[in-house]
Design a protein that fits this description.
Layout (H helix, E strand, L loop, with lengths): L1 H15 L3 H4 L3 E6 L3 H15 L3 E6 L1 H9 L6 E5 H9 L8 E13 L10 H10 L3 E4 L5 H11 L2 H5 L2 E4 L2 H9 L5 E5 H4 L5 E6 L7 E8 L6 H11 L5 H6 L3 E2 L1
Helix pairs in contact: 3-11
């Protein structure tokens, strides 16, 4: 009996000695892959700042919108601005959306591979035609800009036969890291953090397109104050250098 009592006391002490953030219900966040690298790096600081742990699901904006529309429970989300606006209009998010950052489309190559010439539209065209295989996400936010670029360069039909579409940018970047594709075309923020590939550079400015990201609080968030605190942290001064390091521009 004495041993049982001692064990119970020890367990109680352990529970009450946990950090305050760990004892509170987590803030549930649905986060686009486009800002994944930023959020992953800032998560520990954010949790300390708001006094709550974060429970994060990362996926493409397309997949996360489907989850939200299907009734997924969450408190805060970071998606493309267009998706956030759509969810505000449908009543899934509280009326006020918060702009976060924007990111341009980049070209990723396998680590150590010779850097291709992509500084001008003409150079970009030659590089794409020379590549044996190109890959990007069929559900990625940047797909529209990639295909618009191909059309403008007049090489859409030539690239179609050697393009591998994937579900999610992670599979596309993995194709290049594994040597299955020469080039991955996706947001720079989805290339920089990936082991085994490197950013060759952005698309030429004449062909570039930018994806804007924003944050919103769920209309039925269980703790709107904590959800808003997450957003305010992501807009704070300590976050700005991280966005820049991950290839994004703060809005």
């Amino acid at each position: 009996m004495k041993h049982a009592t001692s064990a119970a006391i020890a367990a109680a002490v352990a529970v009450f000695s946990l950090p305050a953030a760990a004892q509170k219900a987590p803030v549930r966040a649905l986060v686009s892959n486009g800002v994944k690298a930023v959020v992953e790096e800032l998560q520990p600081q954010c949790e300390r700042a708001i006094g709550r742990p974060l429970q994060i699901q990362f996926a493409s904006t397309t997949d996360l919108v489907k989850k939200i529309e299907a009734g997924e429970a969450f408190d805060v989300t970071m998606l493309t601005s267009d998706a956030v606006d759509q969810l505000v209009k449908s009543g899934k998010l509280a009326p006020k959306a918060t702009p976060l950052a924007r990111c341009g489309v980049g070209v990723g190559i396998r680590s150590g591979a010779p850097k291709p010439e992509i500084g001008t539209p003409e150079a970009m065209k030659r590089t794409l035609l020379k590549a044996k295989s190109v890959t990007y996400a069929e559900d990625g936010a940047s797909r529209v800009f990639v295909e618009k670029m191909e059309d403008r360069l007049g090489i859409a039909s030539e690239l179609k036969a050697k393009t591998t579409l994937t579900h999610g940018s992670g599979a596309a970047t993995a194709n290049v890291a594994d040597g299955k594709s020469d080039l991955v075309l996706t947001l720079a923020s989805e290339i920089l953090p990936v082991h085994g590939i490197e950013l060759a550079g952005p698309l030429p400015e004449e062909l570039q397109g930018y994806i804007n990201f924003a944050a919103g609080v769920a209309a039925d968030a269980r703790d709107p104050a904590s959800a808003n605190a997450v957003i305010q942290f992501l807009k704070g001064p300590s976050a700005a250098p991280v966005y820049k390091a991950k290839g994004m521009e703060v809005r």
